[in-house]
Target: LemA protein
Amino acid sequence: MWVWIIIAVVLVLIVLWAVGVYNGLIKLRNLVQEAWRQIDVELKRRHDLIGNLVETVKGYAAHERGTLEDVMKARSAAMAGGQSPAQQAQSEGMLSQALGRLIAVAEAYPDLKANQNFMALQQELTSTEDRIAAARRYYNANVRELNTKVETVPSNIVAGMFNIGRAEYFEVEGEERDPVKVDFGQRDATIPPPSGYAGGTPAGAPAAPSAAPAAPSAAEATASGPAPTAAAPAPQQAPPPAEPTPPAN
Model:
């Protein structure tokens, strides 16, 4: 009798443990889905801002047709539905690269850079990128926790029984770029000086006085003959003798 009671208690405990693990896995999966919806909202906002940015650039640089078309094609690919997080990340990476080329083209147009609409769109786009980065960190943290539960024992047994699999991370490729380095320090010796700069003296500056000529060597002195001697000073004449004084009377 006691044996059956013990077995029943053990079975009840196992069922309660399995239910707890299952509920925890479902909760993590829902958190992952919710985090992905937040990313999706910010991505849609990003796509709208990029479309408006392209229209603004087109008004000032319509002849940059190739760059504008590349951005619009990458935007259309990123907006395509039914993509997994990994596929979406690849599409967003391509869009970021095309957008970078568009911004580089815009730098050549001072009127465009000073346009208020263009500046506002850039600020909104920067703010949206920051929100996407924050949402991506939250999403990836939940994905990591879910995948850990799915892959570790004994929770992986429950996950396998109910077909709860791993989730994909969202990592945008090509997002990080090397910062632009501006060096105002001393000029490197390997870099050629600018035009009009020769020998460390700017063009038009008075030349430094040349050094005194070196003394001739002994061989050069012998070949050129004996050096002329200085003329001896003329002998100084003796003063005339003094006249005798006449005797007193």
